[in-house]
Amino acid sequence: MDLGLTDVQRDIRDTARSFIAKEVMPLEPEVLQRERRGEKGITRAELRDLQARARRFGFWGIGTPAEHGGADLPPVTQSLIWTEVGRTYVPFLFGGEADNILYKASPEQQEEFLRPTIEGDRISCFAITEPEAGSDATAIRMRAVRDGDDWVLNGEKTFITGGVEADFAIVVAVTDAELGHRGGHTAFLVDRSMGWTADPIHTMGPSTPASMGFVDVRVPNRNVLGEVGEGFRLAMEWIGRGRYVIPSRAIGATERLLGMAVEYANERKTFGKTIGEHQMIQTMIADCELDLEQARWLVLVAAWTLEQGRGARHEAALAKLGGATAANRVVDRVMQIHGGMGYTSELPIERWYREARLWRIYEGTDEIQRRTIARDLLAGRRRIGGHLA
Ligand SMILES: Cc1cc2nc3c(=O)[nH]c(=O)nc-3n(C[C@H](O)[C@H](O)[C@H](O)COP(=O)(O)OP(=O)(O)OC[C@H]3O[C@@H](n4cnc5c(N)ncnc54)[C@H](O)[C@@H]3O)c2cc1C
């Protein structure tokens, strides 16, 4: 058993770390100011400029298959890179990527949707959640009815990340109510120009998802993604990726926050000594380190399992649950260690506090991850003892 990084993984991780520190983190004070004014933290032009610079270092399409011009890095390496991205709260991501299920697009769809998305010329969003169907995605009601060469979509989607600015949406709708999610749900590529509406939903964090309305939106049959009836499977595949990317990012944020706490605990004095000398502060620091390391290994095991070409649903559920809950406990303690200063918007802790809360909710809540984990054990799909059983 070797739990260390390879030289290649270390090099890539260090280059990503240095890029984020030199090129992205300097924008942090401006991001805080803009968000305080209710603006977006980073403009599309700034993001594209940063991504173009990152491309020169090879950070382009880290998860994109080589046939589409990507680097197609193995999952563990991708996870390490996402952790570096998570160290900053600038809403940055490396370019050259598309929603993983878009790689299944037909050759014509690749020209119209996939290629421009990879190049950053078009923005996509993924829409399955509805007002009456969140955790239970099998309960969606949006109908798509065949009419000649078109499908006609009617219904509502909600909480769609990027829905306000997206040029097109990957929308999952019901094409056969009797079959339901077992062959009756289909994914469509729907241009904004086809007529859907999007209204922002204001949240406690930096994310402003959209509520999307579809009234008789006509979508040509050639815009079906994959096969008719394959929508639920594609949706689960889309969500599956987030389950190791989200906690990978959470680990980066957690590392940075813990670093801030250690620095502050060594400087701030009360009762004639640094607060780091008080045992209750030491307990919080130790618990943060414990949370961080437990989450890190859960995430790496999930990424490694994918890298072995094995199904990683169980491991990804553990990683998402472990990473999201650990980050939330850590950001709370780090705020506590900073006292009143932690609560102010002078420091980014309160921003991370608001953002991290989302990690326990979207792309499968804590409870849904627990449900997956427990049901796997109860049904005997997983042996107790994990990989070493
Ligand atoms: C900022 C943001 C961005 C989002 N982005 C997207 C997006 O881009 N695309 C998209 O399609 N969706 C998106 N979502 C939707 C998100 O995935 C859902 O909000 C999430 O899956 C939970 O669904 P829900 O809100 O309907 O809660 P519900 O499903 O109504 O759940 C309510 C509560 O009940 C619990 N619960 C539900 N079922 C069970 C069960 N079986 N056992 C135990 N507890 C249970 C839940 O864990 C939760 O605590 C986003 C949400 C937010 C907040």
From TrEMBL:
<dbReference type="InterPro" id="IPR037069">
    <property type="entry name" value="AcylCoA_DH/ox_N_sf"/>
</dbReference>
<dbReference type="InterPro" id="IPR006091">
    <property type="entry name" value="Acyl-CoA_Oxase/DH_mid-dom"/>
</dbReference>
<dbReference type="InterPro" id="IPR046373">
    <property type="entry name" value="Acyl-CoA_Oxase/DH_mid-dom_sf"/>
</dbReference>
<dbReference type="Pfam" id="PF02771">
    <property type="entry name" value="Acyl-CoA_dh_N"/>
</dbReference>
<keyword id="KW-0560">Oxidoreductase</keyword>
<dbReference type="InterPro" id="IPR009100">
    <property type="entry name" value="AcylCoA_DH/oxidase_NM_dom_sf"/>
</dbReference>
<dbReference type="InterPro" id="IPR013786">
    <property type="entry name" value="AcylCoA_DH/ox_N"/>
</dbReference>
<dbReference type="Pfam" id="PF02770">
    <property type="entry name" value="Acyl-CoA_dh_M"/>
</dbReference>
<feature type="domain" description="Acyl-CoA dehydrogenase/oxidase C-terminal">
    <location>
        <begin position="229"/>
        <end position="377"/>
    </location>
</feature>
<comment type="similarity">
    <text>Belongs to the acyl-CoA dehydrogenase family.</text>
</comment>
<keyword id="KW-0285">Flavoprotein</keyword>
<feature type="domain" description="Acyl-CoA dehydrogenase/oxidase N-terminal">
    <location>
        <begin position="6"/>
        <end position="121"/>
    </location>
</feature>
<keyword id="KW-0274">FAD</keyword>
<dbReference type="InterPro" id="IPR050741">
    <property type="entry name" value="Acyl-CoA_dehydrogenase"/>
</dbReference>
<feature type="domain" description="Acyl-CoA oxidase/dehydrogenase middle">
    <location>
        <begin position="125"/>
        <end position="205"/>
    </location>
</feature>
<protein>
    <recommendedName>
        <fullName>Medium-chain specific acyl-CoA dehydrogenase, mitochondrial</fullName>
    </recommendedName>
</protein>
<dbReference type="InterPro" id="IPR009075">
    <property type="entry name" value="AcylCo_DH/oxidase_C"/>
</dbReference>
<dbReference type="InterPro" id="IPR006089">
    <property type="entry name" value="Acyl-CoA_DH_CS"/>
</dbReference>
<dbReference type="InterPro" id="IPR036250">
    <property type="entry name" value="AcylCo_DH-like_C"/>
</dbReference>
<dbReference type="Pfam" id="PF00441">
    <property type="entry name" value="Acyl-CoA_dh_1"/>
</dbReference>
